[in-house]
Amino acid sequence: MRQQKWAELAEVKRELAARDWFMGTSGNLSIKVSDEPLTFLVTASGKDKRKETAEDFLLVGADGQPAEATHLKPSAETLLHVEIYNKTNAGCVLHVHTVDNNIISEWYGDEGEVIFTNQEMIKAFGLWEEDAAFRIPIIPNFAHIPTLAKAFADHVHEDRGAVLIRNHGVTVWGKDAFEAKKFLEACEFLCQYYVKLLLLKR
Ligand SMILES: CSCCC(=O)C(=O)COP(=O)(O)O
Ligand SMILES: [Zn+2]
């Protein structure tokens, strides 16, 4: 199971790296391995996530600490992943920093949310009605990770979702790696589209 999950997460990491979504060692990814007890594979902290090595991921438990002896450090943002796995049935969490998701988080930051409407791509989130709206909450980029994780947890209620961290990046989650990647790509499409539209409207 663990090897299969490793391969699944490595494949997602490879695809996101091909999109150049891991600039400057940013980003972190995880995939659930077991429910009871909760364990998940998470990216090791501070690595260049474009590289593929045998030390890309480590297994952690429900507290975000390594579940077995290792010299690797879990992602600095593992506590955000912990909130999702502890509160929902999500199976995969993806976090990337892109210029466009940062711009959108800053532009709409004071409103605490960005609402996407009149866009075919919101169907990726299961919203099929003609007047549907897709809302992504935006939280402050608290440097103290437990504080960030607490603010983040206030927006984690469902097995799938997305939260923007202001001038930092986006974290999305889904029932499995396929769904999480679909949501991430749809989020990035919407952010790219809104940035271009805002520029054209000026
Ligand atoms: C220059 S990236 C700053 C830390 C961060 O926001 C991130 O996503 C990567 O941190 P990690 O510990 O997961 O490598
Ligand atoms: Zn980050």
UniProtKB/TrEMBL annotation:
Q: Which cofactor does it need?
A: Zn(2+)
Asked if the record carries the keyword Amino-acid biosynthesis, the reply is yes
Q: Which residues form the signal peptide?
A: none
The Class II aldolase/adducin N-terminal domain, residue ranges: 7-195
The protein's annotated pathway: Amino-acid biosynthesis; L-methionine biosynthesis via salvage pathway; L-methionine from S-methyl-5-thio-alpha-D-ribose 1-phosphate: step 2/6
Relay the cofactor remark from the entry.
Binds 1 zinc ion per subunit.
Where does this protein hold Zn(2+)? 95, 97
Key words, A-Z: Amino-acid biosynthesis, Lyase, Metal-binding, Methionine biosynthesis, Zinc
What's the family?
Answer: Belongs to the aldolase class II family. MtnB subfamily.
Q: What this chain does, per the record?
A: Catalyzes the dehydration of methylthioribulose-1-phosphate (MTRu-1-P) into 2,3-diketo-5-methylthiopentyl-1-phosphate (DK-MTP-1-P).
**NCBIfam families recorded for this chain?**
PRK06754.1, salvage_mtnB
Name it.
Methylthioribulose-1-phosphate dehydratase
Its source organism is Anoxybacillus tengchongensis
Q: Which gene encodes it?
A: mtnB
